[in-house]
Amino acid sequence: MSAPKTLFDKIWEAHVVDEDDDGTCVIFIDRHLVHEVTSPQAFDGLRDNGRKVRRPDLTLAVADHNVPTSDRSQGIEDDESRIQVETLDANCAEFGLQLFGMGDIRQGICHVIGPEQGFTLPGTTLVCGDSHTATHGAFGSLAFGIGTSEVEHVLATQTMIQKKGKNMRVTVDGELPPGCTAKDMILAIIGKIGTAGGTGCVIEFAGEAVRNLSMEGRMTMCNMTIEGGARAGLIAPDEKTFQYLMGKPMAPKAGAWEQAVAYWKTLVSDEGAHYDIEVTLDAADIVPQVTWGTSPEDTVPITASVPDPATESDPNRRAKMERSLEYMDLKAGTPMQEIKIDRMFIGSCTNSRIEDLRAAAEVAKGRKVADTVDAMVVPGSGLVKEQAEAEGLDKIFIEAGFDWREPGCSMCLAMNADKLVPGERCASTSNRNFEGRQGPGGRTHLVSPAMAAAAAIAGHLIDVRDLADLANSD
Amino acid sequence: MDKFTTLTAVAAPMPMVNVDTDMIIPARFLKTIKRTGLGKSLFYTLRFDADGNERPDFVLNKPAYRKAEVLIAGNNFGCGSSREHAPWALQDFGIRCVIAPDFADIFYNNSFKNGILLIKLPEEQVAKLNEAAERGANATITVDLEAQEITSPDGEVIKFEVDAFKKHCLLNGLDDIGLTMQKDDKITAHEEKLKATQPWL
Question: Hey, of A38, A157, A263, which one would you mutate to test binding to chain B, going by the most B CBs within 10 A of its CB?
Fold first, then answer.
């Protein structure tokens, strides 16, 4: 009998095309998502060398990073953004790739539309020129974020070159307390392991609290695996996964469906499989999280205060903390809930799916955004937007004073017109609080959708569990 | 891709931990459809103030380090996004080698594919090189990829590890797409196997 294998081992082994003596592997790629920012130079490389796209049928393209989230009927005003989107259109036409253009209802953030279309499937390898590709691990898909040279490599050969990573497992036992979400769980994990804690590893998320998550919650968790430095995140597929995928446009159809599910059911880690690193958390200990600094590892419970660099013994880390506090204009010891915000952003490949919008709408319902706050809600795709509108969520948001917008990456990375101005402070459901991430000089506090909505209403960061104290406008 | 064999150059000390790709090149500079000309945006916010004037305190703005080709960096350099614009910006600026205790995975791969050598060394050794680099323009170091050796400004020789395949590609300036295309038979065989075992793909 062969040695017990992890889920990562199984998927990896099923995709090795070739292996060198030193362990360098050529890995077959089943699915490739392409967007406008990291692909133009890859297509140029193909043209320069007279190469074709080997498997256009395994490739799906969408414009998301640059697209406006306001009225699109006039196209894109910014010249550079427009050229990048037009270049994607032209490249897809030239190389015969399927593209969801800006006017397509299926357009949206690549990591939202992949699962939504059933393009993302368990047991597959999936890549995209975007670090948040880890998202697709929620389906038991081994999903890597890659650079443009690798995008070109995958387009030309449908493979990538990589050495196998290490196995790491993060287990979250027990049940999440009320008011806590997948976002709080992953922020707590990153706070614990650090932003380089998963370097060189593929992290499998396991445990009761992970199994209890919806597919949307699992995507939120896997999405931020990269913020813990890992190459990919994985969650074993189960009935929830199959239910989510059944009937999706690109998922296997009847006949093939049963065969696929039978295979997908084998995609679990074997009893006794070896992990190089194991981390365990108790879900009961998790409280709503918020970041105070300029790295996703700078997380604290909302009930805590801004930490004091003086307590950090490592001089380089202390210097980084001091720099972060200066950038964020925060003083050590300030209770997080006293921090006032100017902006609120609900959106991004981390938290822009229907469940995220429902959670935020539940908080927003019957309440009003504070006069001092500008709040925007950006659905992850045209189909998420349509679903939300069918449920009346748009009306709840609009009545509460939130701006309801068109789908795209938006103010997660401020490549389109949505950005903070210097000094503005934002409660954001996105994934990175890096300096200038949401606009030069902008200050980001990462939170869950419910926490973001609550902050918008209160005008400052607030514990969503204390929401009853917030005045209803009814 | 440019070859990397040996390099003797000024090393700039930049010990900050978790230097992310947004710091290396902010997202607003990713709107180009070319891979050239990004050097002027390298470390933009660290290098320039809000009015576009150089910040004199930033290491690469100091006279001694303006022509640095090596960076002595902090742990987890290059964390964050997968943007290859980060190594493109480094290379365009003239940085050919970064030495740090560790690098983020995607940035690590991206750099090697652009002729930039990244060297991982234990924290104490990086700290010593950083100290030496603090001495300014006289502090040149030599990196020999073939021998896998760094000669510090003090003449100390430090051995380093590097992935054999990446080393081979870097030494010879090889395009790995061409190498993989030579394995076409194996890729086709895999595709045939998939058709039989997982026809839904």
Answer: A157
Helix crossing, A393-400 with A382-390: angle to 10°? Answer: 80
A161 and B31 within 8 Å at the Cβ level: the answer is: no
Q: Scanning every residue of chain B, which has its alpha carbon at the shortest distance from the alpha carbon of A130?
A: B82
Compute the nearest-CA separation of A153 from chain B (Å): 5
A100 HSE (CA, 13 A, CB side): 27
What pLDDT score was predicted for residue A456? 98
Distance from CA of B7 to the nearest CA of A (A): 24
DSSP letter (8 states) at residue A239 = H
The reported pTM is: 0.96
Q: What is the pLDDT of residue A107?
A: 97
Residue A472 has pLDDT above 60, yes or no: no
For residue B139, which of B58, B90, B68 has the smallest C-alpha distance?
Answer: B68
Specify whether the CB–CB gap between B79 and A229 falls below 8 A: yes
Tokens of residue B3, six digits:
């070859």
- Pull the structure tokens for residue A241: 């996964």
Q: How far apart are alpha carbons A315 and A448 in whole angstroms?
A: 32
Sorted by sequence, the CB contacts under 8 Å of residue A443 that are 6+ apart come out as A327, A328, A329, A420, A423, A424, A425, A426
pLDDT one-digit tens code per residue, A191-210? 999 999 999 999 999 999 99
Q: Which residue from B18, B20, B180 is facing A26, i.e. has the nearest CB?
A: B180
Please report the ipTM that was assigned to this predicted complex.
0.96
A77-113: per-residue pLDDT in tens?
Answer: 999 999 999 999 999 999 999 999 999 999 999 999 9
A265 vs A279: CA distance, rounded Å: 25
Does domain B6-174 fall into CATH 3.20.19.10? yes
- β-bridge mates for residue A203, sequence order: A168, A233
Domain coordinates of chain B in residue numbers? 6-174
Q: Encode pLDDT of A36-81 as tens digits.
A: 999 999 999 999 999 999 999 999 999 999 999 998 888 999 999 9
- Write out pLDDT tens, residues A147-168: 999 999 999 999 999 999 999 9
Those residues with Cβ within 8 angstroms of residue A269's Cβ, 6 or more apart along the chain or in another chain: A4, A5, A6, A7, A169, A204, A206, A236
CA-based nearest residue in chain A for residue B123: A316
Across the interface, whether the CB atoms of B30 and A37 are under 8 A apart is answered yes
